[in-house]
Each structure stands twice: as structure tokens, then as C-alpha cells.
What we know:
Blueprint: H1 10-18, H2 39-105, H3 112-117, H4 122-192, H5 197-221, H6 226-231, H7 236-247, H8 265-275, H9 284-290, E1 292-294, E2 304-307, E3 313-319, E4 322-325, E5 334-337, E6 344-349
Antiparallel strand pairs: 1-6, 2-3, 2-6, 3-4, 4-5
Helix pairs in contact: 1-4, 2-4, 2-5, 7-8
Amino acid sequence: MPHPCAPRSVAAAAVATVAAASLAFQPLPAAADPGGRPVSELLRELQVMYERTEAASDAYNTTAAKLKRQRARADKAGRALTSVRSALAESRREAGRLARQQYRRGDIGLPPLVQVLLTRDARDAADNLRLLTRAAGRQATTVHRLVAGERRQRQLTAAARKALAGQQRLADRKEKQRATARSRLHRVERTLASLSGAELTRLRGLESAQQTGTQRTLMSAHGMDKSATVRRKPSRPGAQAVRFALRQLGKPYRFGADGPTAYDCSGLTSTAWKQAGRSIPRTSQAQWKTLRRVPMNRLRPGDLVVYYKSASHVALYAGRGKVVHAPRPGARVKVSPVGAIPSVRGAVRPDAGARPLPHYRLPKLLR
């Protein structure tokens, strides 16, 4: 697993390490006394927490995206309702004007044909018939508009209420996720803050050794020869996405963030591709589900590497067996081996079908 930035004290190191569990929603392993526990057991426990953290982050981001869409629907329904109410008010005013005209003419209760027959002058009768026909048509139109407007207002009022109720449910879910995350964070912090400096050092050493072994196994299993990965060139948007991601190095991981000062894992990948002119889904699970799959031995810079069975972590492939990613809470955007996280699910390509550049030079950091 990737290392958080080195803290200034043992307490700070513990807090930075365990912040990764701040979003875990599933039951965590029991918080036992760390004294005497094998470091390998602690590392496995941390890795479970990290995966659950990423899954929780994706769940939060999914809810946030749904809430954003629901707010847009609620706003649209509200605007439509306001427009219909305005038109309905005008129809009512028009109906009132017609009623007042009839009253002033004194023809209330007399059918139009009778009114024409009572007219002595034939020319006046013909003129009156035309006026009455025109007025009758206008009246019928006004009445139809009035009835349709009232029906539409009832429909839109119900739709607006439904949209607002849905918005409130999503907002409540989001707050519940946040509250659960905070309580889990405090529990894990209490456990890992009790680790000694020596235990933390051994934990980092074991983690680093595991990353090295995972990277070697991954490169071998998928035929990811370094020379081939250097030769494989990105598309123009892919190169732009890599350049943008590398400019974010050192910025902190923050739950639900998509820049410009902080990122979570999918916030970084989606924003990098947005800066390259391509819109991709916001969450890692949606990126895995909707983007075209690509074999690991065909990776090119700009592709996305997805981790865990739950597809809850994602990184941007930069080339030469390295990825750029926002690893976890407590860490910062960094370049890591593609196998820095043990469980690789696969890879996807946001710009499938785009031609690779004829010439491409790897960024200096990756050479």
C-alpha cells in the first residue's frame, strides 16, 4: 500500500495512517490491544480499512452526484411551476376581462344567435355575428388555456414536491454517511495511536516490501515489460491528463474533493480527464463500469488502473509501470508503482479509439 507523507511525530504518524479509515461503513475488525500483535496482522487490518475507506468514499461521491442531479430536477420543476403559475394568472385575468365585457353589453344569458336576431339592422347583425364568433373563439381558447393551466399546475406542484422530497432523502443519507465515518475514525485512531514508533517503522517496512513484491508479480503476470510500456504512446488527451495529474503532486487527499486544492482518488482522475477535454464518470466504480476495458499489458499513459474487487480505488497510469493517484486520507497525491495497492481489478481507457501521438517523451519524473 502507498505510504502517507512522513509525519513529524509518532502521534502524527498514527493519525495520518489511520485517517484512511474515516469513511469505512462496514464493520471493522475488533479493536484489540496492539501489544504483541504481529506487524503482518496489523498491516492486513490496515489494508482492509483502506479498501473500506475507498468503498465508502465512492458511496459518498455517488450520493453527492445523485443529490446534485436531484437538485437540478427540483430547480427545473420549480422554474416550470413558476412559469405555469404566471401563465395561469394571465388566463384568469383574460377570463375576467371577457366576463366584464359581457356584463357591460348586457347580454348575459342570451345565446349569440338570439342576440343577432334581435338586431334590427341587417348590416349590424352581420357585424355582430362576426364579433360574437370571434369573441366566442377567444373565450373558448381562454377557457381551454385556463383548464389546461390548472391541470398542469397540479402536476408540476406534485412533481416539485416529489423532487424536493427526494433531495431531502439524499441529503439525509449523505449526512448519515459522514456521521458514521467520523465515529469509525475515532475508534481506529484510538487503536493505532497506541502503536510505538518501532511498531510503526516495522509496519512501513513490511508495507514497502509487500509493494515491491506485488509490483514484480504484477509486471511479470501481465507481461508488462518496461521497454514496451515506454514505447507505448498516449493519445493527445491522454498526455494532457497525465501532465495535469503530475502538476497536482503533493496536494492532500480529501474525502469527496475534485480540486483544485485537494482530491480523492476518482476526483483526481475525473478532473485530469476533464482538463484534457473528456468528460468521464465521477466515481471509480462508474469509471470501471462504463469505460472500455483494456488489458494490463496494453496500458498506455492516461489509462485508468482500478483496484479492489469493489472497484473502489482508481489511479491514472503515467507510464513505465507507474501511476499517479490520491492514495488515501492522510496521504498526498503521489507517483507510485502500479502494484502499490495489492489488489488490481483491471484497467479502462477513457479515450478508446483515439490515435496515439506519433512522438511522445515521458515526463522527467518517470524516466
